[in-house]
Design goal:
10-stranded mixed β-sheet, alpha/beta, globular, disordered N terminus
């Protein structure tokens, strides 16, 4: 299959919300054998009135993910080089292969809900400035009304022309790619919306194992990469610093102890404060969970700083034709 470039599409008002809608669904996977069948079942069930194609982009899974996905009428793309495998690369690749005017991105461990997609297309039909839309995972939290937001993630429905103008996902980001793309789309004066509707169910993650998994897969480096890309934007930097303010405070407090090593009295005060921090944190959250959070925080900030210094390659350097294996299944 020849990779199709993104095309500029003029979206015309629709008399009926089902008419003339073409939907490509891009599912990104990595070792999702426990969830991929439920994910694909929900896509074919709830996207059916609009659905034109489903593209599964797998990042070198070592389990049965691709074998299970092969039982469905999909296009299966596999990123064959480990160094290029990431959720962001999967979304980037899926965008290059997607044919339709709207592209829905779904993580392979999510199960779509039934009510969200018709409401999402209704919003696109009524608002020509809307570039992307999402909803709530598992339960509705916060504002219980349609609201414009700064970013969308997890399940994301984009207008193709917004993706084209913004440049779609950056294939070399190891994390935070949804925030970074949302930022670029908003800069083009498109709106992003989060509907007060459950968009999908997401399996609950172990609060200790999940951060370890994210770190081991190098997802945490994405923050430093995106800050390097947009270091001239005060809004972008402040947004992320506020988002991780608790981690920054803990990290700053811990490293503030190093200068006290040369002053015994100051070191004693710092050590006493550290003891109080871990005691209070352990009582509130549990000693193992809090200690894990602190350790992951140190690794997270350090990894982000290193990735900021190293920078990130240009998206045009991604060797699309060399790392993708394709199978059309029907």
């Amino acid at each position: 299959m020849e990779v199709n470039p993104l095309l500029t599409v003029n979206i015309e008002p629709m008399d009926d919300i089902h008419d003339d809608i073409g939907l490509s669904v891009v599912v990104v996977t990595y070792n999702e054998e426990e969830h991929i069948a439920d994910c694909l079942d929900s896509i074919f069930r709830y996207c059916e009135p609009y659905l034109s194609e489903v593209i599964v982009v797998d990042s070198n899974s070592t389990d049965s993910t691709t074998n299970i996905a092969s039982n469905y009428p999909i296009t299966l793309l596999q990123i064959t080089e480990e160094q290029y495998a990431s959720p962001s690369a999967g979304r980037y690749v899926g965008t290059q292969y997607a044919q339709e005017d709207y592209i829905l991105f779904v993580d392979g461990d999510l199960t779509l809900s039934s009510e969200w997609l018709p409401l999402a297309f209704q919003q696109f039909n009524e608002n020509s400035e809307l570039g992307g839309i999402s909803g709530h995972l598992n339960s509705i939290s916060g504002d219980n009304s349609d609201s414009e937001v700064r970013y969308i993630k997890a399940v994301m429905l984009f207008k193709r022309e917004a993706l084209k103008e913004a440049g779609t996902f950056h294939p070399f980001l190891t994390g935070a790619e949804d925030y970074e793309l949302s930022f670029r789309i908003k800069k083009l004066n498109y709106q992003l919306m989060k509907l007060p509707v459950i968009v999908a169910q997401h399996p609950k993650k172990d609060k200790i194992k999940e951060p370890v998994r994210r770190f081991s897969n190098n997802y945490v480096s994405g923050l430093g990469q995106t800050l390097r890309l947009h270091y001239k934007s005060k809004d972008y930097i402040l947004f992320h610093f506020w988002r991780i303010k608790k981690r920054l405070l803990i990290f700053s407090f811990i490293i503030s102890g190093f200068p006290t090593l040369i002053y015994r009295r100051a070191f004693r005060i710092w050590a006493l404060a550290m003891f109080a921090l871990f005691t209070i944190g352990g009582l509130i959250f549990g000693p193992v969970r809090f200690s894990s959070y602190v350790i992951i925080t140190i690794l997270y900030i350090t990894s982000s700083a290193i990735s900021f210094i190293k920078g990130v390659p240009d998206p045009d350097c991604f060797p699309l034709s060399e790392v993708i294996a394709e199978r059309k299944l029907s």
